[in-house]
Structures are given as structure tokens and as C-alpha cells.
User: Fold this.
Amino acid sequence: MRQTYQYRILPYNRYSSFYQERESFYRSFINQYYLDFAHNMLSQEHTEAYLTKTLIAPQDIQFGASPRRVIWNIGMPSFQVKNINDIQEHKILFYRTKLLHQKVLIQFHFINSFFYYSQLSFLSFTEKTNNILFDSIRSKYECPATLKEQDKTYMTDICGNKLIIEKGVYLTVSYITGDNYPRLLMEQQIKERREYVSKADHYEIDRLSKVL
Assistant:
């Protein structure tokens, strides 16, 4: 039977190239998520954040949920990656979709299967997109009309969860857990890394003394 275009299988070299380009697109969004950056993000306090009475939860998914729970709620991801950079037990689910007729990338980050961070990024946006987004968030989280748009707007809830709206290269909405569990896991990893580096340094100094 003659194969139609949509059912043709890509040759291995073309498939490999396609996959590498695809992976490169997603990795361009996670290059900054090293251990120190992630820990600082979880530890940072914002004194001027607006306190909302509504619990901050992206797509109504509570922080602490497992990857399986997220997939159960919103479907299979477009791409997923784990054990990247220098964060142990780190996994990210990516979803590509469209909102307000704009291309959007959504990330869900987990450490030790604990959902601790999400980011929604408009890959292209207009001022109209920004205004509609801000009004929608202000409505959902029952913010007063006095809360004005800024290049970076902070919100927090009674559990310490944070929401950050930021206009930069992309228009982004970031969601950060207020739970101490992921931060403590990262602090343990930082401690172990320092101990490992210290032992490695002592080993090299000791080796050098034997060579001299």
C-alpha cells in the first residue's frame, strides 16, 4: 500500500536531528535552573507582595502534587526531562498550547516528585494580551482595583505560595510554593556538594604534595 505523506516515517538521521532541535527548544528554558538559582527562588521574600485570600494554585493543581497527578489532571506533556543540570531528583513537564491566540509554554517542576514551581510563558504577546492576563489574574485572586500593572507584580497567599507576573522577553506568570520541603531538600544537596568539593580539593592538595 502506498504511504501518504502524513504516515511516512522519518529516516533515523532526520528523526534524530528533529528530536535534537526539539529538545534544544525546551532546554533553552531550563538552562538557568541550577541548584543555587532554584534555592534562591524558593527562599526569596517580597515585602511588597499583595496578600490574596485565594489559594495560589496553577490550573487548580495544589503544590506538592506528584507528576502522575498533574498528568492525570491536564494530560500528557509535550516534553519531559529529568535529572538536569545539578539538581538531584529534578523533573520538568512541559506543555505547549495556545491562550488568547498566542503560543504558550507551561512548565511544572518537581523535586523528589513534589510539585514546587510552575511557569506560564507567552512566547509572543501584545499589550492587549498583557492587559487581559492581568485583569484575569486580578479577578481570580480577588485583587483590588488599586493593584496596578507593573513590569513585575508579586502576590502571595496565606500559605506563603507566591505568584509573579513579569514582562520581559516573554510575558510570564510564575508560581512558587511556600512549603519548606523542597527548599530543605535543596539545602541538603548544597551541603553535600560543598562537602564533596572540599574532599576533592583536599585530595588534589594531598596528591600534589606527593608529586612534589
Remarks:
- Residues 24-211 form a domain with the Beta-lactamase Inhibitory Protein; Chain:B, domain 1 fold (CATH 3.30.1450.10).
- The CA atoms of residues 50 and 155 lie 5 Å apart.
- Confidence is low (pLDDT under 50) at residues 1-16.
- The longest strand covers residues 90-99.
